[in-house]
Design brief:
Chain lengths: ~800, ~800
């Protein structure tokens, strides 16, 4: 993004070729100069002989304007062809980056007015073949669109405008020659003002037969130049003083207004909005990150000191949602198509193609190049966010347990007992008991009450009156790179004593994540014995009643980016499934129904407890895998996806379920036995279409053999972050441990206090912020999360900045 | 939407004028005829002399094709100018509807192939001035786009394609003349195949100097015709057999595939998706409503019998979300712009313009033509749906009560007491008590556990293990039109005895909803006394502890469209606010902190209990008012909006809060005292931009003095449904009562069983379904909900269908 208070920059796009783009760009330069401004002009890419180039036209008619051309091709065709013909090969994406870099550098040197004239139409291909509108998007310059006054010009102008707007450009003005015959100016003037508040200026100068488009070419150059000079004078002044001079005044005002909006954006938000998960008392208006726009890995953030926009790295992937960067044009187009085809259509008892396609891709009915996350599942339930997806998962799981272990068909006493206890009390001489979840300490599943209740108590839930914490949470051993080596570290636990020394060490991440191989180790037996003993105590001695095993596989995110030992999670799942005898006896004292036999059942039927994977954060390549099932070597009965699912664009989540879970809810035709949960926008086509496009992009990424992780170590534990860098960090003073998997880099700072509430990392985050890297706090843990297409240069810069700060 | 198995229909759009649209349309007709199909051709709107018209071109070169022109203007300019010049005035929207009707009628008469050739480019204005792409959208015909092979044609073709796709059109093929010079065909071929799977066919015939674009005009007509005939033969056959004949085969396949997708859409969804709030055992695959697309008030639904698409009325406004109909192009464009500018950007500690604009419009900082729903509020908290908005509201309200009435600053005993009870038990010799909500029987606030807990127990919550029902719910008197008269009907209650006769009757809805006037009536005193007595019993005798008053104002939606007596709700709010003495003593036995004095406080500070309005369903003109505050004459302390908020397109919700609520959460700089709630996509720019555009459309609607409700009785109780019709219905046998307010029509069927579980209405709904009216079941209540721009014709047809069915 490029916006600086000291320079009023505009890019001039044409609705088509030959609509007068250079005339208007030259005229704008002249009018700006006439208004007393210093004016510079840039043609990033020019095709055709140099003496015919727009810059040379400008030199003739606006010699007071400094003009520059970045790239010049001699053949007057589209730049992508000119480039091919000049070099024999299509330039690669690096050349695009060079052009953008060149424009940005040029802009930074300007004062006053800067006019960037594009080549051809809105979508004319850049040298690399990329649409010019996409090429220039990182700068998001305020835009002047030159409309077409020809027959059909209404259509081409409007389509060009829509293409620009769907790439997030602000169009400050549409300029075109007046046309009495076709009235394009009148029609567009009314329409664009009404629908978008964009003013249309119909402008011309003295010309053949009147006032309008430029004169036709005169017999001699001298006459031609003279005629054009006269024309330009008229174009700038206008017949009634309303020529390009008035456009310049309008553009000056837009520039001023835009800066004023940016100046107040943070303060007004600070005063009127209520941020999620934020203590407002810790903020001042100056702390607010005012985001003008975003592209790829960066935000354009307002810098009050320089009164300009900075490119700030979105180092938390906008709360872990981004996977292909901000404002990806294919996701925008997918959203726009679905909006245009459906808007939203209700889902109960109905079907729409984007929802079905998404379901089939998640289940594997429509295969992709990577393992379907729900290959084991038979059903997809849609909701709006990770928290609602987990509420749905909990309802699915606990009701399945309740119907198997305390069936309605039981006695009156059983029926009463399994009724949700509306008020506390006792029943049958024993305390009424919750259907609890079995989970891990440090887990997080969302902020609605049901999702909160599936997490252990903390200082945060203390302040939520309705929080109950209905479960038991085990303390899981975790992986941590310490002094260059991957250790298994066990936290203190009331359930078992694994000692204080590391339970093991690995030479490589690959080894640590080779769960199948580790299943035969003594540690696996230790885990198995400890978990079995704990479960027996909980159910038999403590008389607790469990309805679900709930896990964030591999990494617990909000709980501090804890890299749980995958072997522990695998063994936990195996033990829970093996101990159906234990869970079936939970209601033994009052039981009157027999537990289903463990044999003779379909292998897809859930056993022991329904196993819920919360893959809201961990799934869909965040950790380098489509699903943690690939690492754990086992599948859940229910799993939740969100965040990356909808490409980091709009809210959407899914809860996948196996057939035996689904069947629980249609055992009878009674409506009350259905899963009575739903949100208005369930399976909204826009979200589903964006999710499908995201899966398509992931599919293409995996199919491309040049995708770095694929080449390096596909299927094994890998990371976008350099392994040697991670090991170096882990050896630094002040760093307790480090880890990296997939897109996630975690640095645990040495801090005795620890925990989420810690403010230990605040200094580091502030220092990085001044280097334009925005990270979110997470206690004494600092994490960085990239997208799946973050350029290597950004990764390297970020690593260097982190290492420098941590060493200092 | 127009799709019929027996007719392969295509509309031919041009990327620009003069790109060969008529040539390709004629060629397609010839190639289809050559493939043995019956072919018909339609030009909906034609400009220019009749003998130069495309239809006459077709008559010359494809005489075997039946060609029709619906509207012919003699002036060869854009239809909107031609129409103006022909009639002296712009045709109104009715003329658009006539054209669509004409095209649809024509299509229904066809077999084989039907080709509809549009005029000019994609956005060429229709006679009314509407973009042609928007005009034809209700039919959503499979589209062939003729691309431009000119210099700049890549840009115009791509922009045209994007404009078509963002209106939900499926583009089956792009046709254009080959061009070695510019290579548009090669570039577009690669790009469109890769990004959208759209094949590009570069086609031509023998022509001047080779094979390509049509020959230039020959000296005589005969020569000209002969040259063109030769050209067409080549265009159809192609040099290598790959001419338009191959395009026809591709289009035939797309037609077949499209029908196959539609045929299986319902079944595959039935087998792989899990519908919200639906008992799957009650469905067969044949029951599924397969929605191909939607526009305005209707779905295009697949009819397996006729193998075609029906226009089915979306009579539940897609679960109460629609307000300007499906696929409104302005909402699509707003979404696309925000997606292109931001994607999503995280919100905590940050700011983005769409979120701020939405906040300021809801709070009234940026005024609109109607009262700001949150004129009383100071803060906007964003989340994803009504249920999460209510979870946020409950956390806000209860925590505010807890901090006022049982402050942390108290003794150790107090602190222990106000800690959320993790397990049931007793404290200080008395049972630990919930912070409960005070609410109304029949209310509904969403399906997450916290939102469910704010509703009374029902047969549905019986089956949700973690449901607790933390509150007390009063039985509210309600309004019902019975035998042509609006009665106040009181349900039986344990709290008071209002008898079984109506508490009152009104000659008009206006009278019933004139709360201010009714405040002085004896009934107001009766309500006041009853509520006071009940509250005293609950707090003093039953020792219950309340943290919030939670209401769906005016109408309780999911609970059966109950039109609560607004006077009762007003008095309830007034009494709760007046009885701070009561709520302050809730913790008296263990109190050690003094309640804040009732005087000396800001009028904006909450009193008694925080009052929460759940306006998720009722707000933003669903009931004809921007907010129920306009009727009740009082404001809440917290309010929730969703559904209409985001224009019926994507999920978004807000919770508004007054400053005294907000301040509770920043009394200390401790993070744990903040409102610790957030979702990844909080304040996502796409949703906020769509919400802003929705508010703009509402604003324009209210400003238009011709808006029917505005003219009739702005500010008073009014309805889109005819009052006389409602009164007639209420007199029918089988109808217990009827009501209508704003967009909502409610019919309560006489059914002793009653309640949501009832299936009494199922027969009626099935009968209406066969008349292409889709309604959602709600026990013995049938309701219809329209948009704010539903045409009168649709309202009248729906009323007639309902009345006929109810009389039969």
């Amino acid at each position: 993004m490029a916006l600086f208070a000291r320079v009023r920059a505009h890019q001039v796009f044409g609705a088509d070729t030959d609509v007068g783009k250079t005339i208007f760009a030259t005229g704008l330069a002249l009018a700006s100069a006439a208004a007393g401004e210093r004016v510079a002009y840039l043609k990033p890419v020019s095709t055709g002989p140099a003496h015919e180039a727009d810059a040379s036209h400008l030199a003739t008619f606006a010699p007071q304007v400094a003009s520059t051309t970045l790239v010049q091709f001699s053949d007057p065709v589209s730049p992508h062809l000119a480039a091919t013909q000049a070099t024999g090969a299509l330039p690669d994406e690096a050349q695009d980056a060079q052009i953008i870099h060149g424009v940005r550098q040029w802009l930074m040197q300007q004062h006053g007015t800067a006019i960037v004239e594009t080549a051809g139409g809105v979508h004319s291909p850049a040298p690399s073949g990329l649409s010019q509108a996409d090429l220039l998007r990182p700068l998001r310059l305020p835009t002047v669109l030159v409309g077409s006054s020809k027959l059909g010009g209404i259509g081409t102008t409007r389509a060009a405008l829509e293409s620009l707007r769907m790439r997030g450009y602000d169009i400050d003005a549409v300029l075109l020659f007046p046309s009495e015959r076709y009235g394009n100016d009148v029609y567009l003037g009314r329409l664009l003002e009404e629908e978008h508040g964009i003013p249309v200026f119909a402008l011309g100068g003295p010309s053949d037969g009147g006032w309008g488009a430029p004169p036709i070419r005169a017999p001699t150059t001298a006459e031609d130049v003279a005629a054009m000079r006269t024309y330009y004078a008229g174009l700038v002044a206008g017949r009634d003083g309303g020529g390009l001079g008035s456009v310049v005044r309008h553009l000056q005002k837009r520039h001023t207004d835009r800066l004023a909006e940016l100046r107040t954006l943070g303060t007004r938000t600070y005063e009127q909005c209520w941020w999620p998960f934020t203590q407002h008392a810790r903020y001042t208006p100056q702390d607010v990150m005012a985001i003008d726009s975003a592209h790829g890995d960066t935000f354009a953030t307002y810098n009050a000191t320089s009164q300009s926009l900075d490119a700030t790295l979105d180092g938390s992937a906008s709360w872990w949602t981004q996977c292909f960067g901000h404002a990806h044009p294919r996701l925008t187009q997918a959203a726009a198509y679905a909006a245009g085809r459906y808007g939203h259509v209700l889902f109960p008892g109905a079907a729409n193609q984007p929802a079905l396609d998404l379901a089939e891709r998640l289940l594997g009915t429509q295969p992709l190049a990577f393992p379907a996350p729900g290959s084991w599942a038979s059903r997809v339930f849609f909701s709006d966010d990770g928290s609602t997806a987990m509420e749905v998962a909990l309802k699915m799981a606990i009701q399945s347990s309740a119907r198997r272990y305390a069936p309605q068909a039981g006695s009156k006493a059983t029926q009463q007992r399994i009724r949700p206890g509306r008020a506390a009390g006792s029943l049958g001489g024993r305390p009424e008991r919750e259907w609890e979840v079995l989970g891990l300490q440090g887990s997080y599943h969302g902020d609605t009450i049901g999702a909160m209740d599936a997490c252990e108590p903390s200082t945060y839930s203390d302040h939520v009156a309705w929080y109950r914490g209905r479960g038991y949470w085990l303390a899981p051993p975790a992986l941590a790179t310490r002094n260059g080596q991957v250790d298994i570290v066990a936290p203190p636990s009331e359930d078992w004593d694994f000692g204080t020394k590391p339970l093991g060490s690995f030479a490589s991440m690959e080894e640590a994540y080779d769960v199948e191989k580790r299943l035969g180790t003594p540690l696996a037996d230790e885990y198995r014995a400890a978990i079995n003993a704990t479960l027996e105590r909980l159910v038999i001695v403590d008389c607790r009643r469990f309805g679900a095993l709930v896990l964030e596989p591999l990494v617990m995110g909000a709980g501090g980016m804890v890299f749980v030992d995958p072997l522990f999670q695998r063994i936990l799942i195996d033990v829970v499934r093996a101990r159906e005898d234990l869970f079936a006896m939970q209601d033994a004292p009052l039981r009157d129904a027999v537990s289903p036999a463990a044999d003779g059942r379909s292998p897809s039927e859930w056993r022991g407890l329904p196993v819920v994977f919360d893959e809201v954060f961990t799934g869909l390549f965040r950790l380098g895998y489509a699903s943690a099932t690939e690492v754990l070597g086992t599948t859940p009965d229910i799993a939740c996806y969100a965040k990356i699912l909808s490409g980091g664009l709009v809210p959407l989540s899914v809860t996948l379920a196996s057939s035996s879970i689904f069947d629980t809810f249609r055992q009878t035709p009674e409506k009350v036995h259905a899963l009575l949960h739903g949100h208005s926008y369930t399976a909204h086509p826009v979200g589903c279409a964006v999710a499908n496009e995201t899966l398509s992009l992931l599919d293409e990424m995996v199919r491309r053999k040049d995708w770095a992780p694929f080449q390096a170590q596909w299927g094994a534990a890998w990371s976008f972050w350099d392994r040697a860098f991670v090991e170096r960090l882990s050896r630094l003073d002040g760093v307790a441990s480090a880890m990296a998997l997939g897109t996630v880099l975690k640095i645990e700072l040495a801090d005795a206090a620890g925990g989420y509430a810690s403010t230990a990392a605040e200094g580091l985050l502030a220092a990085l912020r001044s280097e334009h890297i925005h990270l979110r706090p997470l206690g004494n843990v600092v994490y960085v999360m990239c997208s799946l297409n973050t350029p290597q240069a950004i990764l390297s810069q970020t690593q260097a900045a982190l290492e420098a700060q941590l060493r200092s």
